[in-house]
Amino acid sequence: MKKAFTFTLVLALFLVALPVSAQEEVVELVMGSWRTEDIEQWDEILAAFSAAYPNIVVRFEPTLNTEYDAQLRAALEAGTGPDLITCRPFDLSLGLYEAGYLASVNDLPGMEHFNDVARSGWITDDGENVYCVPMASVIHGFIYNADLFEEHGWTAPATMDEFMALLQTILDAGITPLAMGTKDGWGNAYMGFENIGPNYWDGEVGRQALISGEAKLTDPEFVAAIEAVVAWEPYLPDGHEAIGYADTQQLFPLGGAAIFPAGSWEIPIFEANAMFAMHAFKPPVVDPDAETCWINDHVDIAVGMNAATAHPEEARIFLEWLTTQEFAQMYSNLQPGFFSLSDHQLTLENPLAQEFLDWRQECQGTIRVLYQYLSRGEVSADNENWRIMPAVIQGVMTPMEAAEELESYLWRPE
Amino acid sequence: MEQVAARRPRRFYILVFVLPAFILYSMFMAFPLLDSLRLSLYQEQAGGPDVFVGLANFERLFNDPVWSERFWNALRNNFVFFAVHMLVQNPIALLLAALLTTRGVRGVALFRTILFAPTTLSFVIIGFIWQLMLSPLWGILNNPAKTLGLPTPLLGQTQSALVTVSLVSVWQFVGLPMMLFSAALISISEELIDAARVDGATGWQTFWRVRFPLILPTVGIVGILTFVGNFNAFDLIYTMQGALAPPNFGTDILGTFFYRTTFGGGATQRPNPIMGTTIATIMFLIILTGVLIYLFGIQRRLVRAES
């Protein structure tokens, strides 16, 4: 904060002095972010940008993840916000836009590269205004121990029936099939329910129906998805009730389980630790004859511009560059597991990340079903799911009771 | 004394010594406390200032199913947490103190240091170590617990999680009441003990008829300190179980409930500082009631032993 403030101050003084001192036309933009771990990658990306646009320099100035939102808000209110703002998905950024801090990017050239699902994280409720350029998503699926699979002659399942049969086979071989605990719950919600669920509720179709109120969580397709996760119980490690997400993140690379219900963000972590080859399979389909398969391609991160920036033209040039093939390719390569949301054809250097990305060609994308609108209530349904999903798996409540309780927390637009 | 004081000139310089502490205390303790009590009487209003709603937030906390179920659950759990400390921690502390102050026991200083050591460690370390020991994946306590027929994993079963966490807290804090008890026991005049012995009292009788009645004020202090500490507790449960206090709120106490409500528990939960202060106010009132009962109901009846 202090650093950012000092920097802004220096920048302001510099800008005041500029017309007198030199003819140099280099404009410096500050980019705020919560990704402190990405400084190196962004330096590389921004160097590439400046190579293409020598008169614009972008400085990446991240703040701590947990402090970002409060600090950004305070800085914007004080008029010292960064020129470029990294956007959280959904309501946090929507709040900034509604308060007038984010500029609309509707007419930005290049926005046509982002489809409705990609835009869904950064669009007003009426669908009229997009205020951030979608950057990346995370894809949900299953990462498995390929050496173990080869050794036993197992193959990746394509349907839920095959998946359940495979889990039983692995268990019969004396190996823990799934690296998943039920202690902290968000893994059960996101890598369980939200991972295999879209194939039950027909992805975007079911999600939109839920938002409009045509469908309820107590409808068979949603209850069936909960039941499908509950059916994993015998295949979880012993004592899963007290095993947390961080435990399973150790268990799997150590070879303690065959399959990790995962998000693509695990890729760099596992590749640094696992001593075996890994592959991934996408969420199995329910009906083998289904025409479409769905993957949870969850929108995660975007960039917008400060409506009060002193350099709106330069900021727009940068945002436009974020829509290009060049950026999409570079970003996805530097951040394996975070995939560009644009429709550009990408080839990734990381083969495991490429496997996740390939699913976009085979299946349609949707996002976490409870994220948009539905969790705006006083009690967030998505957050309650972190408690309810493990409770159902542990048998504390039935899938129907779970669905009823979650349904009672839903917030729907009028 | 009072008459003497009245005749003395007023010493205004006392104000100089009192004011800094008074100002700092008011600014950083009293004012925030009162302000949070005030906040619990308001409700947020979209696009406007907060509105005064009287006790409506408390009404919701007690009766609205969304809140009341969690609140009563947290309160019940908090009483269990307190009961375990009163029934396990304090008797063990008394026993240890009695042993440590028995004449002729060797290595008292060493034992006292060892027993007190956990109290000086950070919650994070205690929570992490016990979580590892209890872990069903790599812990050494899970299998013995299973053999004993206890519900395993101890931290994952509704019947056992709360008691397990409470016992870890007991392990951490047993040194504190032990120190208070032994300090009180040491201060008992040896003549009284000798007199009892001359009268033919056994060690057991000496303890319960002579020493214990003499340390009753300390027992009272330990009781009230345990009460205040337990109803303010948060750290250990947060480090061992996380903000969601699994399984299914099984280890949720008022502190964790307050934290989750005020700061938001996960990615999509909006923080709710107003309901948070409502919970904090209830915690304050519970502790205040406990302290008042102790001050007016118990402490006044106790007569400190002449020493």
What does this structure look like?
The complex is a heterodimer of chains A (414) and B (307). By secondary structure, chain A is α/β, with parallel strands linked by helices. Chain A folds into 2 domains: 2-136 and 299-347, Periplasmic binding protein-like II (D-Maltodextrin-Binding Protein, domain 2, 3-Layer(aba) Sandwich), CATH 3.40.190.10; 139-296 and 367-409, Periplasmic binding protein-like II (D-Maltodextrin-Binding Protein, domain 2, 3-Layer(aba) Sandwich). In chain A, 44% of the residues lie in helices and 14% in strands. Chain A contains 17 helices and 9 strands. Chain A has helices at 2-21, 39-52, 65-77, 91-98, 116-119, 146-152, 160-172, 186-196, 203-212, 220-230, 245-251, 267-273, 312-322, 325-334, 351-362, 381-393, 399-409, and strands spanning 27-33, 56-62, 84-87, 133-145, 259-263, 278-281, 294-305, 339-340, 364-366. In chain A, strands 1, 2, 3, 4, 5, 6, 7, 8 and 9 form a 9-stranded mixed beta sheet that branches. In chain A, strand 1, helix 2 (39-52) and strand 2 form a beta-alpha-beta unit. In chain A, helix 16 runs antiparallel to helix 17. With 307 residues, chain B is mostly helical. Chain B has a single domain, classed as Orthogonal Bundle (MetI-like fold), CATH 1.10.3720. Chain B has 15 helices and 2 strands. A two-stranded antiparallel sheet of chain B has the order 1-2. Chain B is globular and about 80 Å long. Chain B starts with a helix and ends in a 9-residue tail after the last helix. In chain B, 31% of the residues are buried. Classes of the chains: A alpha/beta (414), B mainly alpha (307). The interface between A and B is medium-sized, with 33 and 28 residues.
